[in-house]
Amino acid sequence: MLGPVLLAAARSDSIRRVVAAAPVTRPVVERFVAGERLDESMAAVRQLAARGMEVTLDHLGEDITDPAEALRNRDAYLQLAGALKELGLGAKAEMSVKLSAFGQALSGGHDLALRNVTPVVEAAAEAGTTVTLDMEDHTTVDSTLAILGALRERFPQTGAVLQSYLFRTEDDCRALSGEGSRVRLVKGAYKEPATVAFQDKQEVDRAYVRCLKILMAGQGYPMVGSHDPRMVAIAQELAHRNGRKPADFEFQMLFGIREAEQQRLVEEGHRMRVYIPYGTDWYGYFMRRLAERPANLAFFLRSLATRG
């Protein structure tokens, strides 16, 4: 029951101010966010790479209100691509972007987001890496997939994210399961209405498995975004059933969550990519992480009680 409340709080400026001002918040946020500065994110990349993992980097900056902010987010990603190129980390690190950070929700946002994200994708290619377009709430799906199609004309390695709790996602999986297509499948972390999305956890899980079957049987490259042990085991079984080797798919998990499981999968020979967010605009991301799993919320509340 707390999940919807936390997701609503993620968009509340007044709650944002209270949470950001709480002395306990910063050390707890550091569990899920690599830092506010680019150099802190690069340190996390190197540490994880030394443990045999790959990463995808997300500069936090969604829910912007004017085109100038979109340009600042574009420039932050260009700086990130430059750092990856300079440090020779392109083979280990890709980039994840939310198109809302590039102006998608503003007036003329579709064209604005495409115009702003294109140089980022170009810079990523020059750095020897690529970009995956994160998926946001259901109102953005058509625009995001259209931008994906435009980018893939020049950069076919550009990745997509699909959310199993949306009714439409099985069809989207079929459309994006072709050769060379990179798709991260997640359950979904936004509050969606019952008209477009499954509300029951078991229904979301069943939809995730149906979507995973489509991707594993396709010609693309599935990226299994889940911390659920059952989904991890099902993904391994489906990969085996479809003749996929460890290099033919990967697991993805969030920075700071189930770290022992991440290491276990690496030691079993699987590809593991850790999603590393960084930047000053961490609030919305942090609240969604609390909403996703009771264990995350319990961790935060224990910290409040201990430090209180």
Automatic annotation (TrEMBL):
Q: What is its EC number?
A: 1.5.5.2
Q: Which cofactor does it need?
A: FAD
Name the reaction it catalyses: L-proline + a quinone = (S)-1-pyrroline-5-carboxylate + a quinol + H(+)
Which terms are listed as keywords in the entry?
Answer: FAD, Flavoprotein, Nucleotide-binding, Oxidoreductase, Proline metabolism
Gene3D superfamilies per UniProt: 3.20.20.220
Q: Which PANTHER family match?
A: PROLINE DEHYDROGENASE 1, MITOCHONDRIAL, PROLINE OXIDASE
Protein name as catalogued: proline dehydrogenase
